[in-house]
Amino acid sequence: MVRVRKVTPLDGFSLRLEFTDGSVRTLDMEPYLKGPIFEPLKRDPALFRSVRVDKELGTIVWPNGADVCPDVLVHGRTPVALEPMPSRRSG
Question: Which one of 5, 6, 18, 39 is separated from 75 by 20 to 30 angstroms, measured CA to CA?
Answer without folding.
Answer: 39
